Amino acid sequence: MKKLLVPFILLSMSLFIAACNSEGSTEEKDTEKNTEATEEEAKSDETEMKSALLDYQMEIINTVNANDSAIYAFEAAKAKEEDKPSDEEIEKLKTDAEAAAKTVAEDVHALEVPAALDSKKEEIQGALDDLAKSYETRAANLSDEANAEYTESDEQFAAFEEKMAAVYEEAGLTKPSFTADIVD
Question: What range defines the domain where residue 154 resides?
Answer without folding.
Answer: 40-180
